[in-house]
Amino acid sequence: MEHSTITRKNFLKSSTLGFAGLGLVPQLINAHPDHKQSIENSMETTGNYTLKNVRLETGFDYENGEVIGTKTGLFSVQIEKGKIKKINTTQNQANAIDVKGMLMLPSFKDMHIHLDKTFYGEKWQAVKRRRDGVKGMIALEQEMLPEMLKNSTSKAEKIIELLQSQGTSFARSHVNIEPTSKLKSLENLQKALENKKEGFDTELVAFPQHGIFYTDSVPYMKEAAQTDIDFIGGLDPYTIDGAIEKTMDFTVQLALDYHKGIDIHLHETGESGLKTVEYLIDKVNENPVLKGKTYLSHCFVLGRLDSKTQEEIAEKLGNAQIGVISTIPFGGLIMPIPTLTQHGVKVMTGNDSIVDHWNTFGTGSVLYKTNLAAQLYGKVTEFDLSRMLKLATAGPIPLDDKGTQQWPKAGDDANVVLVKASCSAEVVSRMSPVESLIYKGNIIF
């Protein structure tokens, strides 16, 4: 499970690992040595280069009012200082990198993952049988964390490389903040992120994995809130802390005091789960500054509600601008993702755990999650498949619902993937392999 990180300069120099090995830059490989070095130096120092023969989606093909295909064209894309500077149809630019008709899409985002604790990169071990539910797992973590922290930085780097290999350049990572590791998990992860900053970025959630009050994580959460983390997290306030209001009030106030967002793990599927959702909606409506900055991760209770209640809660979540970050799938539980999106709820997904003591099924691919969602909800048409790409990108897709091109535009960040596919619908349906990842203009592979 080792993945090597290749700098842009070494990547271009290598005939087996670089674009040359993929057949993408014949004009660079065949260039005069002095000219070739000039191109490499330009890319290394300025990040400026042009890609030609880039396939971009331009619109839909219709038959009797139904979308039956996706129109594409070949373009050149000029990248400068981490941004897309210019897009045109001219293909004869000297020194341009020829991507030979590969489809360009926005790079992917994993919006729920735990980069700070994993077995990834070590020997295989399956999940041990759980005892005493989440509290039993908390006790297990308390035993395991001191040893896991010894090399958590290097393992986080390995997971980041795995995500990059699947086309992901951004993640929202939850980071343990509790009395066992205190802020050590955060410190170790920050080292990994600094080492990978040229090709990867994150949002960080201060996550009280062992409960806010169950293990007295309050002082450590307050300390974490004063760092540059982005979200205040939480975990099953009734099951773990025994008090919805007390726990949620602390979480919301901490977010308000330090101008953070909120992202709560909610696994509870019964009455307490629904009460937690409704209480959070009320708190966000009382504090509008939290709208668009508040999320419920998992939120499995939504999958247990009758359809009428699902509609009601989805409407309330949409009005409060509270997003849902869903695990796809989760056993036999079917989350009402179509209902949520119909009511304007922002729905995202992520790998959650990758080879750790909670789960071993994480592949590192949010495209895989997107494919599973498309199958689960019967999204089989050209139009519907193309819309599902939002789950992999956490938002931007090439065409709006009317088929008007909305991405890429000049000025956009140069965060892109190149895939061998005809359109985004095919990418979702066939899980087309990612051939190249570019992040802020940096060619990662």
Automatic annotation (TrEMBL):
Residue ranges crossing the lipid bilayer per the database entry: none
Limits of the Amidohydrolase domain: 251-420
Pfam families: Amidohydro_3
Signal peptide: none
InterPro entries: Amidohydro_3 (IPR013108), Metal-dep_hydrolase_composite (IPR011059), Metal_Hydrolase (IPR032466), Metallo-hydrolase_Enzymes (IPR052349)
Name used for this protein in its record: Amidohydrolase
